[in-house]
Amino acid sequence: LPTGREDALRALRFNFDEQDMASIGQAGGAAISSGLATGLSDAKNVAATLKKELGGVDDELDLTQSTKEALALAQAFNIDDNEAIRAAGGIVKRDLAGNTSEALQLLLELGQKTGLGFEEMLEIINEFGGDLNALGIEGVQGFSMMADLVERRVTPQLDQAGELFQELNETIITGGAAE
């Protein structure tokens, strides 16, 4: 399909206006220029999905930056672009990151620091994210602290570092140690 026709179909499918389509085109072009995408259509699809999934949730959505980060995350973990976007969306919706870019950076950094696979990271985030929120620790900062504990060999694995926060939460918030 020619790009113009693809853009028209994308606009209809996602119910985007001209301004949305312009920002999607700009984000797609930037992803191509940075070498993170091989085709403009694929890059625009990532940008369109980000806009659709997170545009109403993330008031600070930087579509160009987030498109590049979603593509980088997908490449780094050999996952589908949509998986990267869904994961970032879940992190933002749970208030574990201030915006989409922070959520994508969290996943990239956590993977780099720990060497965990994508699914393992999501399990850790899902398991311990609530404890971080309850303790008043921003997700990005808390997961970075967990990764640092592993990197410094305080705990051998990320889930054990998370358990420290879980136990702290149980002790401080509820008044008893976790079992």
Describe this structure in words.
With 179 residues, the protein is mainly α. Helices cover 75% and strands 0% of the residues. It contains nine helices and no strands. Helix 1 packs parallel to helix 3, helix 6 (100-114) runs parallel beside helix 8 and helix 7 (118-135) packs parallel to helix 9. The longest helix has 18 residues, at 118-135. It is elongated. The mean pLDDT is 88.
List the helices and strands and how they pair.
Elements: H1 3-14, H2 18-33, H3 40-54, H4 63-77, H5 81-93, H6 100-114, H7 118-135, H8 139-151, H9 158-174
Annotation field: number of helices:
9
Distance between the termini: 58 Å
Morphology call: elongated
What's the story with the biggest beta sheet?
Answer: none
Structural class: mainly alpha
Rg measurement, Å:
18 Å
Give the total of beta strands.
Answer: 0
The residue-averaged pLDDT reads: 88
- Please bin the fraction of helical residues: over 70%
Please state roughly what percent of the residues sit in beta strands, choosing from under 5%, 5-15%, 15-25%, 25-35%, 35-45% or over 45%: under 5%
